[in-house]
């Protein structure tokens, strides 16, 4: 009788699994993660390579594809990969951050099983532990629309990835020791485009044709401005949302953000600068790549085109100009605008305020006065096994406390499945903040200077603001978002400034459903790594 019940359970499980994933293609990827010598700024460094490459190989997928990614860790340190912008629907088990996954130990491997469910757009992956991101290990994720879903622009002649961001000549473990000792990072040494320094990378185009450029800021500490000498940038997509196709001469991209432009090769055939420079820094770093016309007989020439540097107002105006294309299809055939986010009244308001306290004489960063410290067991696994003492719900307040006191805590905020929340990011510091939320896309309904109050809602865009997963907050300003909590799991909310994230400016949002149903959340993976207080336990039989 027991065997027959087990067989029946396995059969039901297979039916449920196939119902979710069976009709969608599987893509199998194997990665070997190693150290290797790299010279991005002309100085030998220890880089993190994936299959011998820096940056790592692209991931190309179509909406709803299943990705089976086997990661072999040949480093001498634990390692994890996370997927910036991939929502992991019902599946925070695969998110690849310290609060959801045990690390892959040196010499071991782990296979991620994830689905790019109901998503399109431009994203990237990165190493999430031990400040490894400062050594590389990142790469592009491109999620294409299904063939029968209309796209609001003609098929481009080519599709280019631009992974840009600031870089340090010091090895990642030196930077990590600096942070661990209670100091902040120095100013970066330079900028990279696709792992290369000045004029180190070339994009070749044919005259008269139009190309898609997918640009991500994969840096550690600074916003960037992107531009192409003599060419217009037509914005078409931001982190999975089709946008109104506004045209820009240059565009600000904040830490962790991704976007797509159409660029037409409509100038005199020659070579042109592709430029990234730092924003909101007194000392401006610049790097270039080359846009090469296939029939060009002349190299790059003239001064590198300029752009705003420390000015905030142009960036705010530009950010407000990014609008949702209401009539375009997203990952599904129905128009994006058929979801009327502004007609839903939030059931809860959360305010998150960043700060830079010193605790025990060392530099830390905090959210609502709480500086996050990782637990000895991933929070998601501890929650599943009901292991006491790993974290406490409510260990971070949902509103900034009065006073300047800050303290250490493994901070987890409680939330309920299907809540509709308003989150206000309040920034009283003099630097631009960049916030990312795993597992979700949210609507950036407003941003302005000063203190947010309920009266600030009168300025919200409740019709056609863009949906994205990373948003900036300008100095001494606020940014407000609306977000439907439709994805059960344990989700990281963090600063995309990697030093701030490392030193505590992050926490986890536990979105909970009492149903305990696979309709709401997939079960723990059979191959889930178990560590800390979960070591010696078992996942599930099938």
UniProtKB/TrEMBL annotation:
InterPro entries: Cu-oxidase-like_N, Cu-oxidase_2nd, Cu-oxidase_C, Cu-oxidase_fam, Cupredoxin, CuRO_1_AAO-like
Domain Plastocyanin-like: 33-146, 159-296, 377-514
Signal peptide (from-to): 1-22
Source organism superkingdom: Eukaryota
Keyword Hydrolase: no
SUPFAM superfamilies per the UniProt record, alphabetical: Cupredoxins
Pfam families named in the record: Cu-oxidase, Cu-oxidase_2, Cu-oxidase_3
UniProt keywords, alphabetically: Glycoprotein, Signal
Molecular functions (GO terms): copper ion binding; oxidoreductase activity
Stated family: Belongs to the multicopper oxidase family.
Record-linked PANTHER family: L-ASCORBATE OXIDASE HOMOLOG ISOFORM X1, MULTI-COPPER OXIDASE
Protein name from the UniProt record: L-ascorbate oxidase homolog
Species of the source: Gossypium lobatum
Lineage per the UniProt record: Eukaryota, Viridiplantae, Streptophyta, Embryophyta, Tracheophyta
């Amino acid at each position: 009788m027991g065997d027959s019940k087990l067989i029946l359970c396995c059969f039901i499980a297979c039916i449920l699994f196939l119902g979710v994933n069976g009709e969608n293609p599987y893509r199998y990827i194997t990665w070997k993660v190693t150290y290797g010598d790299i010279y991005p700024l002309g100085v030998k460094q220890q880089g993190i390579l994936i299959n011998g490459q820096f940056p790592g190989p692209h991931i190309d997928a179509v909406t709803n594809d299943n990705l089976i990614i086997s990661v072999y860790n040949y480093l001498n340190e634990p390692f994890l990969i996370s997927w910036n912008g991939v929502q992991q629907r019902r599946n925070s088990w695969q998110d690849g951050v310290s609060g959801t996954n045990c690390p892959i130990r040196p010499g071991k491997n782990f296979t991620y099983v994830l689905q790019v469910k109901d998503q399109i757009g431009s994203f990237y992956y990165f190493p999430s532990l031990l400040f490894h991101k400062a050594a590389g290990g990142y790469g592009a994720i491109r999620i294409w629309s299904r063939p029968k879903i209309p796209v609001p622009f003609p098929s481009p002649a080519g599709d280019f990835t631009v992974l840009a961001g600031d870089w340090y000549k010091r090895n990642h473990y030196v930077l990590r020791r600096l942070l661990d000792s209670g100091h902040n990072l120095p100013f970066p040494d330079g900028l990279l485009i696709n792992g290369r320094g000045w004029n180190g990378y070339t994009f070749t185009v044919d005259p008269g044709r139009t190309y898609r450029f997918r640009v991500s800021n994969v840096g550690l500490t600074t916003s960037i401005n992107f531009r192409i000498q003599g060419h217009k940038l037509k914005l078409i997509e931001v982190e999975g949302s089709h946008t109104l196709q506004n045209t820009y001469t240059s565009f600000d991209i904040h830490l962790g953000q991704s976007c797509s432009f159409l660029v037409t090769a409509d100038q005199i055939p020659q070579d042109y600068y592709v430029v990234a420079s730092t924003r909101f820094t007194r000392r401006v770093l610049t790097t270039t790549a080359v846009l090469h016309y296939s029939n060009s007989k002349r190299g790059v020439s003239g001064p590198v085109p300029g752009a705003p540097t420390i000015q905030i107002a142009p960036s705010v105006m530009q950010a407000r100009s990014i609008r949702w294309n209401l009539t375009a299809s997203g990952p599904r055939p129905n128009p994006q605008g058929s979801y009327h986010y502004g007609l839903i009244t939030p059931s809860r308001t959360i305010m998150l305020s960043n700060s830079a306290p010193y605790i025990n004489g060392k530099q830390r960063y905090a959210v609502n006065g709480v500086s996050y410290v990782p637990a000895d067991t991933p929070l998601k696994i501890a929650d599943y096994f009901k292991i006491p003492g790993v974290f406490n719900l409510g260990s971070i307040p949902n509103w900034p406390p009065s006073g300047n006191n800050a303290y250490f805590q493994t901070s987890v905020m409680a939330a309920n499945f299907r809540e509709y929340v308003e989150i206000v990011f309040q920034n009283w510091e003099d630097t631009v903040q960049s916030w990312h939320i795993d597992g979700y896309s949210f609507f950036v309904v407003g941003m302005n200077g000063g203190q947010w109050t309920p009266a600030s809602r009168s300025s919200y865009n409740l019709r056609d603001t863009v949906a994205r997963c990373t948003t900036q907050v300008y100095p001494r300003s606020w940014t407000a978002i609306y977000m439907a909590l439709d994805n059960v799991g344990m989700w990281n909310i963090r600063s995309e400034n990697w030093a701030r994230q490392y030193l505590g400016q992050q926490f986890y949002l536990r979105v909970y459903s009492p149903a305990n149903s696979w309709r709401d959340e997939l079960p723990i993976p059979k191959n889930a790594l178990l560590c800390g207080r979960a070591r010696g336990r078992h996942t599930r039989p099938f």
